[in-house]
Amino acid sequence: MIRDLLEGNKRFVDTVFERERDYFAELSKAQHPTVLWIGCSDSRVPVNTITQTRPGEIFVHRNVANIVAGADWNLSAVLEFSINHLNIPDIVICGHYGCGGIQALDAASEHDQYVPIWLNSAREAAHRVDARLAAEGRQLDADARLRLIVEENVSLQLEHLLAYPFVARAADAGKLAVHGWVYDMESGRIQVQRSRPRRPTE
Fold this sequence. Notes:
Blueprint: H1 2-19, H2 21-27, E1 35-40, H3 47-51, E2 58-63, H4 73-84, E3 90-96, H5 100-103, H6 114-118, H7 123-136, H8 142-162, H9 165-172, E4 177-183, E5 190-196
Parallel strand pairs: 1-2, 1-3, 3-4
Antiparallel strand pairs: 4-5
Helix pairs in contact: 7-8
Pfam family, one: Pro_CA
Cofactor: Zn(2+)
Binding site for Zn(2+): 40, 42, 96, 99
């Protein structure tokens, strides 16, 4: 596989890069993305492919289950850089159905040490869904329940995102909009889960 990656890079240089040399030359000078994408690390959710965007258009942070954790210094730096230096006006948190991280909320491997700790920031999504189903007297099959948890997790992570004081200030000032999306691997479509658009400044 490693050899395939290097061969793929050669094909990229000989075709795409050569054809768009001027575009990549401009990219080498500076980046001006207009969206920060916080998504899952899942290899089946390639950001530029499913949104049909070009290099330089989306600033990307990915982790297991598209989590926004307050103690994640990596994400904190990404957010700070995005808002304070790149002046990105839109943040998208994108989950996806069939997420292994969400499935692991119910059945974490006994061999895992770090995954269960990381998923603590998503457990509230499962609790909310289960409480709602119990209150409504509904029972769903496992797949349907997990789909609801994926959706609820996106909403939960938006709450975590807006708990960052500098993110909330940017949103309140009308400089930032936040969006929650879910990607369906079976249809290839993105559905809007929640959105907080930019408020016009006075």
